[in-house]
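User: I'm designing a mutation panel for Gfo/Idh/MocA family oxidoreductase and want to avoid disrupting the core. Could you give me a predicted structure to guide residue selection? Please restate the sequence first so the numbering is unambiguous.

Assistant: Good idea. Sequence first, for numbering, then the predicted structure tokens:
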Amino acid sequence: MTTTPSAARTVGVGLISVGWMGKLHSRAYQALPSVYPELGIRPRLVHAADTAEDRADHARDVLGYERASTDYRAVLDDPAVDVVSICAPNVLHHEIGIAAAKAGKPFWIEKPVGRSAEETAEVAAAARTAGVVTSIGYNYRHAPAVERARELIAAGKLGRVTNVRATFFSGYAAEPNAALSWRFKRDLAGHGALADLMSHVVDLVSYVVAPIGEVSALTSTVHTERPVLPMGSGTHFAVIEDGEMAAVENDDYAAALVRFGGGAVGTLEASRTIVGPQCGIGFEIYGTDGSVTWNFERMNELRVALDRSGPHQGYTTVLGNSHLGDYAHFQPGPGNSMGYDDLKVIEAKKFLAAVAGIEHRNSTIEDAHAVAEVISAAAASATSGAWEKAAPAPGATFGRPAGS
């Protein structure tokens, strides 16, 4: 890191993979000085890499990176790169995450970090050995309404949490002719909806309520074949008519009964083929004294019930306002909506604040490892039909103070 004349710390940013998420990370870094000027950090877009030369050129010519390469190792070897964003397909997360750790580069990586709990644990071990700061793309936990729900639960406003319902229902693969992208292949993505969507649900409820200790799960594949899409030629939103068909190798739907640490129980569901919801990640959390509900499709609203028997029973809808999370950094008054991209700006802020040693509110590789162990237990349960315990992940805190 270097210091500019204005005393803001300049952080050299490297990017690996210039797809939609890579562009989003780049915009988040660029927004940081204006959204969080008090942080005193000024990201500098230094070096981007993508195996597709046109995407690498886009990073340099459009996004504003100083240089571009077609090999991610050039980013890790660049001495001007202080931190790295890893936005490559799932199959590469393990390899690149370990390489970033060995290069001594703090990294912000998208989920799932590995295609399995074992791969994720190996990345976590490499990061611990290198002593590098990590952050994971669990962006939904940063929504101001979610942060407020977490505060209410931690303060005991809901009483003892008894049961939880949480879902991630997305229709991105509801179209039977949606392309057979890498997301549908076991060797490239690992599990399907279980890893891609349920991992977000597991992180969200672990962050807001408590870590999950035990799982009973099932999975199903709704569309068993899809038309082939050449790697790098489109996204999982592409639709191909009359194309060559090939097998879907992982799950479209997953459901789990779970037991949380602390005694609460719950149900979790995820689907990528559902018709209706588009980005329907949300939760209902019930306690002995109250409840809260939230859904990303109405991201700027939190429904709260805290009167068990008095004159104000039922839900109050709380609109986004300056008392909720980081809302005041984005909007001047209640009712003005924040969006998905804003959550990535918050995520970038938490990552770089941790790198700078200012505060540690970021999701970490240890959290990702804990989530991966729950997903692994769910996959084992879907095969065995039995309850499966999630193996412990050393160091996972989900943002809680050590020992809490």
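For picking mutation sites, this is relevant: The chain has eleven helices and 18 strands. The first helix runs from residue 20 to 35.
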